[in-house]
User: What shape does this take?
Amino acid sequence: QVHLVESGGRLVQAGGSLRLSCAASGRTFSSYAMGWFRQALGKEREFLAAINWSGEGTFYAGSVEGRFTISRDNAKNMVYLRMNDLKPEDTAVYYCAAEKASLGVSDPDKYDYWGQGTQVTVSS
Assistant: This one.
């Protein structure tokens, strides 16, 4: 089992940057693919990025590719999401998730464990 805790969300001005962190517990963390999602108020959960177990494979939603970067440090049981050039429409609760099959997919239903989320608010 994997327990996930996100951090790093805060209020930031448009054009700014943030790095979100996701701390994972569990000795099998390095065998999981990890993903980042977000959910804005009144909207469905949206896939942002995924990374395979080794960190060598990444996959992004078209809406964030080039602005967001996912990475992981298996030695520290951490996953990160670097977000640049933030826009007001990036305002949402951001979640990290772990997927046992290690496929790094975009379907949230394929993920087995979720964190509680961290709020990102981008002001114009």
